[in-house]
Amino acid sequence: MAPSPPAPFLLLLALSGLAVAAAQFPFPPPQLTNASDADALRAVFKQWGLGYGATATTPEDPCLKKVWFGSLARNASIDCSCGDSTLPCRITHLNVTGYRNLTDFPPALFNLTELVSLDLSNNNLSGQIPPGIANLSKLETWHFNNNQLNGPFPNGSSGLRSLQSLWMFDNYIEGTLPEFIANFTNLTDLRIYGMKLQGPIPKKFSNLINLEKLMLGDLDGRNSTFDFIANWTNLSTLSLRKCGITGELPNMLSNLLPNLTYLDLGSNNISGSLRLLLPYKNSSLYLGGNNFSGNLPSEMVQSSRPLDVSYNPLLIGILPDNPAGQKWSINYIGTSIDASRTTNSENLTLLNCLHMKGCDRTFYNNLITSCAVNCGGKQTTYPDSLSNMFYDDTSDLGASGFHVNSDRQWVVSNVGSDPLTLSNSPGVVNESQVNLGTDLPELYRTARTSRSDLWYYVVGLSNGKYTVQLFFAEIVIESELNSGPGRRSFNIDIQDRNIKTDFDITKEAGGFGRPTNITHEATVDNSVLKIHLYWNGRGPRAIPYEGAYGPLVSAIRVFLPEIPPNNSPPPARPEAAPHDNKRRGVVAGIAALCIAAAVISSSVVYLWWKWVSLVKHPNT
Description:
With 620 residues, the protein is of the alpha/beta class. The protein is built from eight helices and 38 strands. The strands form seven sheets. A 13-stranded mixed beta sheet has the order 1-2-3-4-6-8-10-12-14-16-18-21-23. Strands 25-26-24-38-32-35 form a six-stranded mixed beta sheet. The radius of gyration is 36 Å and the shape is globular.
């Protein structure tokens, strides 16, 4: 039997065969980008100062490169359709996000007529949306959220009938909520909030039968009713926060929305019974700030799903007993619900103060005049600088809950979860590695956050005018000031009066991890001081992670200003001007010389008189 050929010889033979085959059947050259698309993209990137087309003399073909920069926070990329090998590729997707230096729309952008997806979110685009958007009639995804756009929504966009996803939140667009959006019947995801739009919600929105996510909010102007809700069998997320909705819930709501898992109707004027929402007892429900009445169905109270019914003053009912080792995930502050089975009588008395049913002054033997809380952190004392003990505030509040501190001097309340991830807010954040550059690091390294509403109540205060200090440091969203895409924005009310709108910690402090404080005077006349920090629909929702938005506060301090004796400050000693001091020095010098001269003259006269006496009476 002949010996088999060695393995290297066989490998060489196989490679030779492949080379011959490749020569006979060469691989087709890669498809290049359509020339007009390439020119348009080059002009767009050049105007925006991006790499492609700005400096390169022989730039790579766009559909071969595709990605210029890619990350969660910042992205510059395209995708192409290269179906027919005999035709050039067309640019179908353009993503340019997270560039705060982008301020305008290049005209060439609207020459990319094959685009089906355009994402320009988290930039700094300003001015009105150009009418050229009508050229992009094939768009299925159009995201321009988190910019600085203003003016009305362009009528030219009414022809974008292929849209499936439209995100236009966090801008300054104004006018009436466009009715022509109802013509986008392929929409599955519609998000419009955090702007200057006016209601009502058009009744024709009922045509949007393919919706899976609908998030509307922050509408001023005329009130809305529920007449726009139709048979939306695919809808899982419905958020209608601050939409000016009045009236009662639709009778057949559960038939119209059978697959709902998240419902936010907060801060409207909705009335009627909550029994119509009983089919959604296993969903996340945010119903606070309305006029619901009647009994709260006990079946709606769950330990695993958040339920917010706060500030529905006519809502009554009895909370069931807490499950063993658990507590209900419900926020009922500001209602008439009987919670005697779940909390002690002292806490009930305190909660009655928050319900504004009137504080029982006899409950507090000694009214307090100061209180301080280390939000999200352990108990801390600063005797030298602040002369205050800051209470521990590390309790887990979940997505809907509150905590009464052990001394019953203050209460913290939280409402909110991210509707897209259905995850609870971290609640408490701790960044020990942040270099804060302050002599009070323990106050700023921890914080309490919320994805919607965060309240602090100081209870049992002596009536009077108080100084309220709020301490802040951004320790989560790390971004270069005015250039990075991350940005936290929220509003602040004290005693139901707004003191800050669109408050941005990083901007106020001058950078990430830097402390900044707000000091405000507030009057207490019912023993309760109320601090409300709440999300206003503005700022990115997913940088550096999904759900990184909403209010954040590091510490709170409330105290009566110190009153000097006789109720008036002592008169200040006037400070001398420099030329006055010089004049006084000259005068003092002259006076000293005069005195010295007088002393010397007197001495000379005395000695002369003594000498004359000795001469006249030598034997004396």
